[in-house]
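Schema walk-through. Below, the input block comes first and the output block second. Nothing else is stored per chain. Lengths vary across the set, and this one has 289 residues.
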Amino acid sequence: MLGIPLSASIRGIVCMVIGMALLTLNNAFLKTLTGDYPPGQLIALRAAFVFIPIALIAWRSGGLGTLRIYNLRGQSIRAGFLVMTQFLMVTSLALLPLADVTALSFSGPLVITALAGPMLGESVGWRRWSAVVVGFLGVLIMVRPDPDIFRAAALLPLLAASSGALRDLVTRRISTGESSIAILCFSTSAVLLAGMVSLLFDSAPLDVNDLPVLALAGCLQGAAHFVLIEAFRHGEAAVIAPFKYTALPWAALLGFLIFGQVPDAWIIVGALPVICSGLYILHRERMRR
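--- output ---
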């Protein structure tokens, strides 16, 4: 990847960082529409546009044969977790500030680290655990959630993080026998179907002026999930999961570029343990080679 010889885990880390940047940008665009459409409709409309990058990647990868499914059960389980994660996340974006949703969703790497051993047979020592916890503390410093955040709505991104963690662990398990584009296509089809079913219960008139935003969000979502699937194909889940924390620095950057918000001292101070924890995990991985 990138023309540079890298170990599998480092390729996974690079994919994770890129994927989280794309996913954060997608969330920023989608949040601008959460006040106008119900979650199911947003999910369905965005999923329809995800098929644009799917078609391009499939074409570049060898055609329709790359979309063939070999593990229907595993694909279905992953798709179910993805549907659950997206409904919970979009609902969270509608009810809570983006920074709060991002911070609460960072409980996901802790879930992945806890389950990587029993589900995937990966070795997770106390050093990795310590690095993950330090990184999460850095996230809390950056966001500084006030007591009001801990209300019922705050459970939604926590549940989204848990279902997303299970999705990622299933991705790691099935990626040895399934192509990344096949995983993305199957799961996106399930999300589109679930979103369309939800339209029977709640929908809003579509403003054609919102289509460019939805198209951009869909393309970003598709590209992000393809890269994230690649991340879990290459790297051990417990190694690459802490690099999900890089989404918050991306969010701070996007806040400045799009909304003119300048990160304060707390953001800078909190970013230090996040960066250090990620670098430490990378250092430990290099020592294992």
